[in-house]
Amino acid sequence: MDIGKVAKSSGLPPSTLRYYEEKGLIKSVGRHGLRRVFAASVLERLALISLGRAVGFSLDEICLMLGPDGQPRIDRQRLSDKADELDRTIQKMMAMRDGLRHAAICSAPSHMECPKFLRLAGLAGTGAFGPRKKSSPNRADRSVAGAG
After folding, report:
1. Which of 32, 118, 120, 132 suits 106 as a labelling partner, its CA being 20 to 30 A distant?
2. What distance in Å separates the CA atoms of residue 49 and residue 56, rounded to the nearest whole number?
């Protein structure tokens, strides 16, 4: 299969396929003119890469789990650790969802008078829902961040 057909079948642009090849995630079997040619099995490998990316593995982590011979070498402990990480992310997202739903129907005159909303904002401010972003020296950014 030439790179165009692989791109169409996988939904990935040729530039991504070339990058994956450069990283050692996939391997072309030759060229047809100037176009890379891949074995049909590359689609299965690309599906595994897409699955890994969807659950949050980095390309380097995925590369470690895909053997150069085309056979996966998936570390079960790494899968378990990633599942635990996803559980923590799901819990955080559910807490944020519940807080937003509460804020949408809260009867307090202002969100800044709602204890539940303030608790949620306080947790977000401590980085409980993810890494804190560095504050920008830009005055406009500060005024937006302080708006409520």
Report:
1. 132
2. 11
The pair of structure tokens assigned to 29 is: 């079997």
Contacts of 6 (CB under 8 A, 6+ apart): 12, 17, 38, 42, 43, 46
Count of positions (residues) in the chain? 148
Cα dihedral 10, 46, 22, 17 in deg (nearest 10): 0
Residue 129 has, within 13 A of its CA and on its CB side, a CA count of: 15
What distance lies between CA 7 and its chain's CA centroid? Answer: 21
The H or E element that residue 4 is part of is helix 3-10
**Run means of pLDDT, 10 residues per run, the chain, 148 residues:** 93 95 91 88 93 93 82 88 94 87 86 83 76 48 38
pLDDT at residue 134, rounded to an integer: 54
- Between CA 96 and CA 117 the distance in angstroms is 10
Q: How far is CA 4 from CA 12, 31, 97, in A?
A: 10, 12, 41
Cα dist from 117 to 35, 41, 88, 129, 130, whole Å: 56, 51, 21, 14, 18
